[in-house]
Write a structure and sequence with these properties.
Helix content of chain B: 10-25%
Structural class of chain B: mainly beta
Order of helices and strands of chain B: HHEEEEEEEEEEEE
Largest sheet of chain A: 6 strands, mixed
Largest interface: A-B, 41 and 33 residues
Largest sheet of chain B: 6 strands, mixed
Number of strands of chain A: 18
Distance between the termini of chain A: 39 Å
Helix content of chain A: 10-25%
Number of strands of chain B: 12
CATH topology of chain B: Jelly Rolls
Radius of gyration of chain B: 16 Å
Radius of gyration of chain A: 24 Å
CATH class of chain B: Mainly Beta
Strand order of the largest sheet of chain B: 1-3-12-6-10-9
Strand content of chain B: 35-45%
Oligomer: heterodimer
Shape of chain B: globular
Chain lengths: ~270, ~160
């Protein structure tokens, strides 16, 4: 090869070697949020653990960004039955921290290993949603599937910033503890650091797995959120649930454990 | 694959192998841990169902003090179920346990026994089919005035 020819060949190499490649994966998220009636609780009137029955006539929520979380590959390095100092009551993939936070096993393992914890690889804005009739929509990145980096996506998180409900309550006990039907409302704001609704995933993103991913995420809150509400305290023409601190605490505890349903489909290009 | 899919990380592999978090596949083992090692929450049963203190399936033992009655000792506690599933009620003393709905209808256990293979502390085990709502548990004995009670869902997975 002559010197000029070699120079041309070398000059062309980067153009070939650094051509855009396909991402490790791309995901489209189909998101549904809907207030859901549970058959075991009845029909329009949903029975509560407290023996009250509620009819939810209006429901809406404001969500933060839906996040797909890379949980990494740090092996579990503690026994959930004997959690490290600062944690207790480990179950369902998380432990209760002494300061009240719910902390995932992966975060604790990463902390003990001295490394970084799980980190979001994608955040998709959701915002305010009406829940009573339900909302189903595709969340995408600028109208296209979102590129995924090399990751082990093990969790989807969805913060619930605000929950608003309205309905009626009646009692199944005799004598009834409230005059039926008693109207009630709820307007509940969540702290920025409150535990998000969470769903677990098995979604390795690498060259060994089909890269095109459709992920369905369903947020389906039920009357279980109201199991701990002290409806026996209901007074006035319309009782505002948030005026009772114990009821607010109970709802926050239920929201802390709110699970997301997930369904994953994968295919090759 | 719609589901709460278990993690498939090394972490979860450890968990499956270990099987030792709060989520035992065997509720008897879980109950034995709590009935023998707590944590313990004291409650005092009431002589009537009205105002009966609540116990829960929340990874703890409830130390129930039974008030004196003409037959020895007896009283009521309540259990609020958010699911229509069987629950297992464990006790560590020889006491009679009777289950009713909040309306007073008796609930017949699917199964009752006086021991479990997993430990020697359990002296009563009752599998009780519950609907969503509140049930009352009447506990009585001619001689026993304090009993530890642990409640576990009969289903395998009882994550929140």
């Amino acid at each position: 090869m002559t010197r000029p020819a070699l120079a041309i060949a070398v000059a062309l190499v980067p153009a070939c070697a650094w051509d855009d490649g396909a991402p490790f994966g791309e995901v489209t998220v189909d998101f549904t949020a809907r207030w859901t009636e549970v058959p075991a609780r009845g029909g329009d009137w949903q029975k509560l653990a407290s023996d009250f029955e509620v009819q939810v006539t209006a429901a809406s929520a404001t969500f933060g960004a839906l996040a797909l979380v890379d949980v990494g590959t740090v092996a579990l390095n503690f026994d959930p039955a004997d959690p490290p100092p600062g944690y207790s009551n480990c179950h369902g993939g998380h432990c209760h921290a002494d300061d009240g936070r719910l902390v995932s096993y992966e975060e604790i393992a990463a902390e003990l290993a001295g490394g970084g914890g799980p980190a979001p690889v994608i955040r998709l804005a959701v915002g305010a949603r009406e829940l009573r009739t339900g909302v189903a929509e595709t969340l995408a990145c600028a109208g296209a599937p979102c590129d995924l980096p090399l990751a082990t996506v093990g969790r989807v998180e969805l913060p619930v910033a605000r929950l608003e409900l309205a309905g009626l309550v009646r009692d199944t006990r005799t004598p009834p503890r409230v005059a039926a039907p008693q109207p009630w409302t709820l307007a509940l704001d969540r702290a920025d650091d409150a535990a998000p609704a969470t769903g677990t995933l098995d979604l390795p993103v690498d060259r060994g797995h089909a890269p095109r991913i459709t992920l369905a995420v369903d947020a389906l809150p039920t009357a279980a959120l109201l199991d701990g509400v002290r409806f026996e305290q209901a007074t006035g023409p319309t009782w505002a649930v948030e005026t009772d601190p114990d009821s607010v605490t109970a709802i926050h505890a239920e929201l802390d454990e709110l699970a997301l349903d997930t369904d994953t489909q994968r295919e090759d290009y | 694959m719609r589901a709460h899919v278990l993690l498939t990380l090394p972490a979860s592999l450890f968990l499956v192998a270990c099987g030792h978090e709060h989520g035992h596949e065997d509720p008897d083992v879980e109950a034995c841990e709590h009935i023998a090692g707590g944590p313990y929450t004291p409650v005092t049963a009431t002589t009537q169902t009205t105002g009966a203190p609540a116990i829960a399936a929340d990874h703890r033992a409830y130390t129930v003090t039974l008030p004196a009655d003409p037959n020895g000792f007896g009283g009521f506690v309540s259990f609020a179920s958010g699911e229509a599933v069987p629950y297992i009620f464990y006790v560590d003393q020889n006491v009679v346990a009777a289950f009713t709905t909040s309306g007073g209808a008796p609930i017949t256990p699917q199964m009752s026994g006086t021991s479990v293979a997993a430990c020697t502390e359990v002296m009563g085990r009752h599998v009780v089919p519950l609907q969503v709502g509140t049930a009352y548990i009447g506990l009585s004995s001619p001689t026993v005035s304090t009993v530890n009670v642990v409640v576990e869902p009969a289903l395998v997975d009882h994550d929140h």
